[in-house]
Amino acid sequence: MRTFLALAWLFTLFSGGYLLLFAPSFEMPDRLAPGCGWLLTPLLARVAGSALLLLAVAGWRMIRRARADALHTAPPHWHRVQFALVAGSFTLLLAVSAFAPYGPLTAWQGTVHCPQSSIANAWSEVTGRE
Question: Which residues of the chain have pLDDT under 50?
Fold first, then answer.
């Protein structure tokens, strides 16, 4: 289990650093509609990288505290900071998924109809974009 946790932490650290430094534009396919997905612009890739790095920081803090066998004696301030790191990371990931345009993937060979969620429809009405 420790090996898995170490690999998960390293993956989070390196993928977050890569997204933050290089900011590649890429498409993230939808699991339920394989021909549809979100297009992450360089700015959104940097925001996703920042979120992953926040999770890596929270994980490192947890690893250090667990290695010292001091999880049960952690002060309330430590828990509040840990909660803020994780909540901030999830908020950034939610913002990425809310602001990334959803539509057909460019590499998809067939025709596909991508359903829009009610949140996306409301957002497009507010901004005046499709």
Answer: none
Instruction: Collect all residues with Cβ–Cβ distance below 8 Å to 98 and sequence separation of at least 6.
Output: 119, 123
- Biggest CA-to-CA distance, the chain: 57
Sign of CA dihedral 81, 86, 92, 95: negative
Q: How far apart are CA 91 and CA 86, in angstroms?
A: 9
CA angle (64, 68, 82) in 5-degree steps:
40
Structure tokens at 38: 């979100």
| pLDDT of 29 | 85
DSSP structural state of residue 31:
S
Task: State the virtual CA torsion across 52, 54, 99, 102 in degrees, nearest 10.
Answer: 20
DSSP per-residue letters across 37-105: EEEE-HHHHHHHHHHHHHHHHHHHHHHHHHHTT-STT--HHHHHHHHHHHHHHHHHHHHHHHHS-EEE-
